[in-house]
Write a structure and sequence with these properties.
Blueprint: H1 2-13, E1 21-27, E2 30-36, H2 42-46, H3 51-64, E3 69-74
Parallel strand pairs: 2-3
Antiparallel strand pairs: 1-2
Helix pairs in contact: 1-3
């Protein structure tokens, strides 16, 4: 449910909503929601000084009802 809600919110922000992917993973410290968007939309999802990403994390934390959930915006174009 959290992944679907986050995906819906992110699709409303970006210019390429078909490229939005939210993947839920489990880790030792709780659930992790990884958000992947089109490279051109990365700045929109992060926002100025991270404000949009922080707001998305706040909404997801409120929906999680006390459970530990982390939201990561993944940069898919990063070369290693």
């Amino acid at each position: 449910m959290l992944a679907d809600a986050l995906e819906h919110l992110v699709r409303g922000i970006v210019d390429n909503p078909d490229d939005v992917q939210v993947e839920a993973k489990n880790s030792r410290r709780g659930d992790v929601l990884e958000v992947r968007v089109h490279q051109d939309d990365l700045g929109r999802v992060i926002g100025r000084q991270g404000r949009t990403a922080r707001a998305l994390r706040t909404v997801v934390a409120a929906l999680a009802d006390g459970d530990a959930v982390r939201v990561d915006v993944v940069d898919t174009d990063r070369r290693r």
